[in-house]
# Entry
Amino acid sequence: MTPQVVTVEGHRVSLSNLDKPIYPDGTTKGEVLHYYATHGDVLLPHLRDRPLSLLRYPDGPDGERFFTKHVPPGTPEWVTTRDVPRSGGATMRQVLVQDLASLVWVANLVVELHTPQWLATDPGRADRLVLDLDPGEPATVVDCCRVALWLRDRLADDGLTAYAKTSGSKGLHLLCPLLPTASADASDYARLLATEAAKALPGLAIAAMARRLRPGRVFIDHSQNAARKTTATPYTLRARPAPTVSAPVTWDEIAACGAPAELDIRLPDMPGRLAEHGELLAALAAREGAAPLGPH
# Structure
């Protein structure tokens, strides 16, 4: 099929295979593109100035999937790219999604969007903290909610404000705005919190990485605070059997959650959620109330 060329903010973007089903429920690539194009106002503040990593699934989540941080071949010259430091003094050139045209171009590749906890302008210095709550079956997101409430209050004790979103998979992500601090220090602090939670919530939370210990408990993954790691960006679609979204949720929703389906948020749900709640992570994106790292 001949690609369709559209103009976005003065840039020509070639879109391909718009009728192609991407998810088993029949969600097409055109619907995926429409989602990203119409939600740029909430997505872009979380992407801007953050090096982008892409999980691509051009034939849907059941087909080939590949993760890349490099600038894809054929990237238009108007898309911002930057050399990002790596260990050992090396660098890697990565995409920065700075505007709607770049977001639409990226979405045409069919991607999950992942970003680090630091800005390209201040590499390796975290401006947010992340805790990834991952339930081991038969535990579910309902159990994650119990852990999230404990962590929210514990973070508040250290002057940090926590925001929550679904992972778009099985669990939850908690995010806190920070005054810029070394990623290694953020990692140490997150590890401390995970260990404290595991002690305070025995049989429910676990901080150990060993997979054999996770069944029936919520693993608090603190490792995504490392400078080399990335986390699913707020509002990104996920490469799952259904078009799930890593969507912001309220603390009331977390406190009231009694079944996993209550926090199973998908592409068609997003317009209604945004109309009802607005952008729940606006303050996080603007780094409002950013606080120094808690004592550790």
